[in-house]
Amino acid sequence: MSDAPAFSRIAPDVRLGEGVQIHAFVNLYGCSIGDETRIGAFVEIQRGAVIGRRCKVSSHSFVCEGVTIEDECFIGHHVVFVNDRYPAAVNDDGSLQGAADWKVVPTRVGRRASIGSGAVILCGVTVGEGALVGAGSVVTRDVPPHAIVAGNPARLLRRKE
Prior knowledge:
Elements: E1 9-10, E2 15-16, E3 21-22, E4 27-28, E5 32-33, E6 38-39, E7 44-45, E8 50-51, E9 56-57, E10 62-63, E11 67-69, E12 74-75, E13 80-81, E14 107-109, E15 114-115, E16 120-121, E17 126-127, E18 132-133, E19 138-139, E20 147-150, E21 155-159
Parallel strand pairs: 1-4, 2-5, 3-6, 4-7, 5-8, 6-9, 7-10, 8-11, 9-12, 11-14, 12-15, 13-16, 14-17, 15-18, 16-19, 18-20
Antiparallel strand pairs: 20-21
């Protein structure tokens, strides 16, 4: 287990594998991070998120509840995952929404997938094994295994050879 650097907040309920590297200004709570994974600066990983072994999560990324990132994945700088199809601050009656007022929609990133910097991954999608999501893309539907997608919304460019 890695020692937390200064200015990082790692809650006691976080499960860290062996040899995990964590940089400064990281906020981790209720998540699981596999062996030899590297977490860059200014990353938040929320409760219930699972990061596999030998992954790299680059700086300024946000991994929310409901996201599973399998082994050996690359998550570029400032990648954002979304876990709510219809986000709102308040209910119909104007009361603040609480945990019981919305449903987490899971998202999965398959083994050895790579997500380029600045990408937004909407909830309920699967990024297939070995797929590549181009920088700045907005992923609104499943990405097939070994596909290369890019754009807003992300579209298939070609298959990896």
